[in-house]
Design goal:
Family: Belongs to the purine-cytosine permease (2.A.39) family.
Pfam families: Transp_cyt_pur (PF02133)
Distance between the termini: 38 Å
Strand content: under 5%
Number of helices: 20
Largest sheet: 2 strands, antiparallel
Membrane topology: Multi-pass membrane protein
Subcellular location: Membrane
Shape: globular
Strand order of the largest sheet: 1-2
Keywords: Membrane, Transmembrane, Transmembrane helix
Helix content: 55-70%
Radius of gyration: 23 Å
Length: about 475
């Protein structure tokens, strides 16, 4: 029987691969995750051998007491930033690229934000994948490019299907990692006096407190700025605080300070072999899985940024799963051929440009509160405002100025300097009425509709 025109109109869409994960809309309250699922996602970000290495590096140049102060300073700075930005993401159910449309930057400005975040995160995905491949090659043999390809494919496959499956992976990896690490550390330290290690002098050249705090806070500042990518799935503001604070305590005080003790023990920052050598093949597998669990967030955040960028610049809504495939392939190939390591300086520059985004978000959302009014009006209905500012030129100027402070001012913590500069400038100028939006953009109809080729109810990865 021939199809009628009406039948053609309502023909089902072709199903896309993976989940769109509310890339251009609010995460509905009934699709958010419980406390324990989200806690494991947060704790998974602490499960990295590199954090032990950072602790050992600091321990080589500091006493245990000074290292404790450095980790405390870094943890407090990060927690303040994460909570201030993450709480905004939780309240609105929006990731950072979408949030900036109504919080500081306007529609076109959000495209610039999305581009910077996407390039930075997919770049670090490639860099981390290269480190991953080289490490596995050194441990078990085989060409590093092969391990880069295998890891890249595995992480891409996970991220395609979105937050739900990333949460399941966290439930598996996080307990295994910390159980394995605890056993390795206890086995190593049981024959040594803990008191002597705590009170022993630093075995290497002294590291100033500001330098150590810079390494601790600056290294994760980009992750703090894009915390709404995770917190938009939280149900309560108290959960955001408790989970992020738990992650800070585990990452900085337990993992980091244990690294300090190991650094005093072996008098070197080469401590990863302690965990790997005492846990055998199982330990290697768990460490590799935990590394993948951290790197998946780089790819996930990048995919959300690209989706918003294309919607704003080209007027095209593309599926986040499809974007993930493209970005994953690109990052994997570049890491396999060894190109990504040449871009670390460029990525470091972008890293200084990202903290001011957080400063502007915090200033507008919690202090100035002039552009966020449409979000307040539509929050209960869980829809997006029908219009948004097109440009906010003063925000772009503040962003550039704050980035320059972070890049060229030598004192303090560069990432914190640029963030604080942006926060202060936007707060003062915004309250004076000098931060003004220009133009009004109407939200495209498809922005509030289900993602292309996604089910009309719940995307695969958001249940």
């Amino acid at each position: 029987m021939a199809a009628t025109p009406q039948a053609e109109t309502v023909a089902p869409e072709t199903k896309a691969i993976g989940s769109d994960d509310y890339a251009l809309s609010r995460v509905p309250r009934d699709k958010r995750f419980g406390f324990w699922s989200m806690l494991l996602q947060w704790l998974a970000q602490s499960g990295s051998i590199s954090q032990f290495t950072l602790g050992a590096t600091i321990g080589v140049g500091m006493t245990f007491g000074d290292a404790f102060l450095a980790f405390t300073l870094g943890a407090v700075i990060l927690e303040i930033v994460i909570f201030a930005i993450g709480l905004a993401g939780m309240r609105e159910g929006l990731a950072t690229p979408m949030l900036t449309r109504w919080v500081g930057f306007g529609r076109n400005g959000s495209a610039l934000v999305s581009f910077v975040i996407a390039v930075s995160l997919v770049g670090w995905f490639g860099v981390q994948n290269t480190i991953f491949g080289n490490s596995v090659s050194a441990l078990v043999g085989g060409p590093s490019w092969m391990w880069c390809v295998l890891a890249g494919i595995a992480i891409t496959a996970l991220v395609i299907f979105g937050f739900k499956y990333m949460a399941v992976f966290a439930k598996i990896v996080t307990p295994l990692f910390f159980a394995m690490v605890a056993w390795s550390i206890v086995s190593t330290l049981k024959d040594h006096s803990l008191s002597e290690l705590i009170h022993s002098p630093p075995p290497g050249q002294t590291i100033p407190l500001a330098v150590a705090a810079t390494a601790i806070a600056g290294g994760y500042m980009t992750g703090a700025i894009v915390s709404p990518e995770m917190t938009r799935y939280n149900r309560k503001g108290s959960h955001v605080f408790l989970q992020s604070a738990s992650s800070m305590i585990l990452s900085e005080y337990i993992v980091g300070l244990t690294g300090v003790l190991l650094g005093h023990l072996v008098k070197s920052n080469e401590v990863s072999h302690i965990v790997l050598s005492t846990s055998g093949a199982f330990g290697v597998i768990v460490v590799l899985m935990s590394t993948a669990k951290i790197n998946d967030w780089n790819l996930y955040g990048s995919s959300l940024g690209v989706v918003n960028f294309f919607q704003v610049v080209f007027g095209k809504r593309i599926h986040r799963g499809a974007v993930t495939i493209v970005l994953g392939i690109a990052g994997t190939v570049l890491s396999a051929v060894g190109i990504m390591t040449h871009f670390t300086e460029f990525l470091s520059i972008l890293g200084v440009a990202i903290p001011p985004i957080g400063g502007i978000i915090v200033a507008e959302y919690w202090v100035v509160k002039k552009m966020r009014k449409p979000l307040d009006e539509t929050r209960e209905s869980e829809t997006l405002p029908r219009t948004s500012p097109t440009w906010v030129p003063m925000s772009i100027a503040i962003w550039i100025a704050a980035s320059c402070v972070g890049k060229f001012y030598d004192g303090g913590i560069p990432a914190l300097n640029s963030l604080a500069t942006a926060f202060i400038l936007y707060s003062v100028l915004g309250l004076l009425g000098w931060v003004k939006p220009y133009g009004t953009s109407t939200l495209d109809d498809e922005d509030d509709a289900p993602a292309p080729a996604a089910p009309a109810t719940t995307p695969v990865g958001a249940a």
